[in-house]
Amino acid sequence: MIGGVRLGIAALVGWAGAWLWAYGLAVLQPLCEPGSPFWESAENNSYWARDVRWSAILAVSAVLAAVSRRSWLVAVALPWLAADIVLDRIDPGRPALLPATLIAGVLVTAVAIPAALRPPRRPLALWIPLACLFTASTVVTLESPSDAEPQLALSRLAAYVVCAIATIVCVLAALKPSVLERRWPVVAGFAVAVALFGLAPPWVTFGLMALGAATIVLLREPWPGPRRAAGVVALHVAGLIAAGFVLLLTLLQAGRPFTALAGNEPVNAADSDPTLLIWSVTLAVVWAALVHLAKTVTTQPRPHPAAAG
Fold first, then answer.
1. What is the pLDDT of residue 6?
2. In sequence order, which ranges of 69-201 are alpha helices (DSSP H)?
3. For a disulfide at 22, which of 101, 172, 173, 239, Cβ 3.0-4.6 Å?
4. Terminal alpha carbon distance of the chain
5. What are the DSSP E strand ranges found in the chain?
């Protein structure tokens, strides 16, 4: 992508994500606190607005890394998450919508301009498109305890859209141009599958997520042949489903420290306090590490029989 196109993509996703984050902070978060007509007690999914905001932060940060092909730029999410927790604790309310959008959008643009106009470097790290893919597939099924909030459906749809766009942008940035020229039909099929996340039942969406992750990995590597590629896909699907459930059980209380830092009411002891972002990023990093380890092991030269003797 030329610099102007990269800058346009970064600005589009950046401002959309900035508005969604600000909307989540100013409008959605008050729905998740005592005093809201939808609030009964702190339980599973009570802080669903946090997942909407954090999904937007991941999408924007990933796109900034993608347009520059500098994976370290995804770290801009860290100070943004810190600011989110501080503002969540302050509870600025609806008046913060416009200023929060403008401040976040201007800061994202300030990072995007030099990032997009510099010559891109090596392909994006594998875990970044995987994290966007996993987040898109989970945030589209986001629920609240009551599921009665009129803003819930459109908010999770908006979070899904920005994460889906970020996924496709990151996949393109994770491929070499020569690979993209040869395998563009597969990339197009992948984009269609990501679009189906919003239409399929949750269990189908999870299967599509695992299949999409296998596709991302196979796109980055030479085709090993149809039969072996099918085996790799099957291994990825089975392994990701198993790893995803294990991490889900492990991270059921991962949101508790952030709930406390934000000054929100703790979830009752009988329920869990997970966060989609922590699960998605953890699964992406673990799976990318396993893929790298498997590649290292399988590409090691075998000792020659004569040398072994």
1. 80
2. 77-90, 97-117, 127-139, 152-173, 177-182, 184-195
3. 101
4. 53
5. none
